[in-house]
Amino acid sequence: MQHICSRTTYFFTEWLSSSSAFGGGDAFIRGRCLTEGVIDRWIQANYCNQDTFSWLDFTVYYVLQQNGVAVRCTNLSLYSSPSPLPKPCSACYAMRLIKPFVSQELLKVIYYAYFQSTMSYGIIFWGHSSLSIKVFRLQKRILRIMMGTRNRYSCRKLFINLKILPLPSAYIFSVLRFVAKNKEIFTTNNKIHDKGTRQHLNFHYPAVNITKYQTGVHYMGVKIFNKLPTYIKNEFTNSTKFISLVQKFLSENSFYSLEEYYNSDTKKY
Asked: Higher confidence at residue 211 or residue 252?
């Protein structure tokens, strides 16, 4: 099993430089040396310790230019062992160290800067996977450290009091933000038929049976949106108000799983 390095997974989508930045040479004759130079320079620039890496996994694109060759490295992953979640773990360790010396307000700022930013990156794609439970457990551990509670203490009230979304709720919020920003790819039931049914505000489910599609962002957006309370769905045309109401609803309920969200009684809201 591959484990992510202590500097998590790095993306080089903007790392495109001309040959003048790395030295000249014929286009592809010196391609290998040029590639090694790009990776080595990036590792040094980001203060990474090469001795901790078990192996490198990356994709390289060579772009031929008039004055030489440019190199673009994408999806570079640095692997080592044994921890699969080192970045969040390091955030947990840092929180434990500084807690005696700073206020709770500053701890919350550090939480958002050091853990929340990492957790929320790409959560719309991995937030429903089975491996997300490991990150969720770390999130609860950090909250217990912030509030000074016991290891077995329930964090549900802590999430509500601190107005922090649990990972499953953060995933739901991320999907609904995608829905609000891409209204044109969703169809409501009242556009399919002119019957005034109780579910006329719900999205129409795509006619697909492929599990891969049903766990994708579009289908999950339909499923999650349809479970929202009616007063929130009524504001769907106003994206700003819709997102604000969704965030408030999720903060007040603090859902620990998608199943809990689906089984919640939204008629009482």
From this structure: 252
Residue whose C-alpha is closest to residue 25's, from 12, 38, 14, 11: 38
Classified as helix, coil or strand, 161 is helix
> What is the Cα–Cα distance from 258 to 176, expressed in whole angstroms?
13
Please give the single-letter amino acid code of residue 35.
Answer: T
What are the helix and strand counts (H, E) for the chain? 13, 4
Burial of 18 (0-12, 13-18, 19+ CB in 10 A): middle
Amino acid (1-letter code) at residue 139? Q
User: By CB neighbour count within 10 A (0-12 exposed, 13-18 middle, 19+ buried), where does 129 fall?
Assistant: exposed
Report yes or no: 129 and 168 within 8 Å, Cβ to Cβ: no
pTM above 0.85, yes or no: no
Distances (CA, A) of 84 to 4, 77, 78, 225: 5, 13, 12, 32
pLDDT tens sequence across 224-244: 999 999 999 999 999 999 999
Q: Quote the CA–CA distance of 149 and 65 in Å, as a whole number.
A: 59
Q: What is the pLDDT of residue 88?
A: 66
Cα separation, 142 vs 161, in Å, equals 15
